[in-house]
Amino acid sequence: VSGAVMLGRGRPDAALHLLIGMVGIAIWAVVGGSGIANDPILGFMTMAIAGTLLVRDHQRTYVIVASVSVATTAFFTAYEGQTLAERTVRTVVSLTSFMVLAWLVTWLKAQAGDRQRRLEDALASKDEFVATVSHELRTPLTTIMGIAHEMQDGVGTFRPAELEEFASLLAAESADIAAIVEDLLVASRSEVGSLTLDLRPISLASELEAATTSFDLIPIQTSRDFPLALVTADAGRTRQIIRNLLSNAQRYGGSDVRIVAATNDVHAVIEVRDNGGPIPEAEREQIFVAYQRAETSRRNPSSVGLGLTVSRQLAQLMNGDLRYEHDGTDSVFRLSLPLDLSEGPEIPEQAVA
User: Fold this and answer.
1) Residue 299 reports pLDDT greater than 50
2) pLDDT of residue 188
3) How far apart are CA 122 and CA 28, in angstroms?
4) What is the pLDDT at residue 8?
5) Concatenated DSSP letters of 203-220
6) Rounded-to-integer distance, Cα 335 and Cα 323, Å
7) Contact in structure between 244 and 308 (CB atoms under 8 Å)
């Protein structure tokens, strides 16, 4: 009956499903013994479960028809000396058994399908990622190659001011390439567990100043006690996080980008703020996933999609964290790192949270 319904719905592989069901019955007859092998209820259930496992479209229709088939077979199969009540109980038990098995098979198929879709999405994202990395590396490399050819062709003809401008451009474009490569290295090393950090007491104010030298006109507001604070962190990785947050804000945030830094009892906190619109609630964790970007990020073709992922990984490896929120006015990326209270200047109680 199930096979006939599938044929009526235009399923050309219905015969294959019925064949698998009959093979299941044959195997059951061989290994089950004469008493079980001659039980048509078990035969129908075997075929129905095999069909549930193999059917791809119209699965609900198949399960409904198979359930009716199992129940009908169980009720109308007569055994010697059985009463109507006993046949009814057998029907209920058989139908319940089949429904439970069908649900389990359907759930397992759904889980397998979800894993397959996630794998396909990951592969598609990585393909897009490779294309994006190629594009983003090509842009500064094109600039560097162009300047190099100009300087090669015009040796001795450029004025000092022009040479100074060329050197500035080369330094800026090289820094962009270095930042991209560094993010890629951190991402790959963290995946294989080979990323090592040099955790020691450092001045977060000094690292903040060093990280912002290449960003023009970024105002920094600090609490009175922030310059005295020492944190336990890796200096180079801390600068990398700050640079990533500032680049992200300048690409996707509003026009007003600024930094607010303070301390509380146990952490030093750096907030990179901009007056851009909020990231949708459903995407606020997605922006920290490798090779994933929010919808606003996808519209920017020069986004690798690793900066925030790497930054959060580094912050957590340094026993801190990186979070995003929107306070109604600003988009805020908040980096927190643990204060080093074992040595160095004591943090006053009036520290601003």
Assistant:
1) no
2) 72
3) 41
4) 63
5) EHHHHHHHHTTTSTT--E
6) 7
7) yes
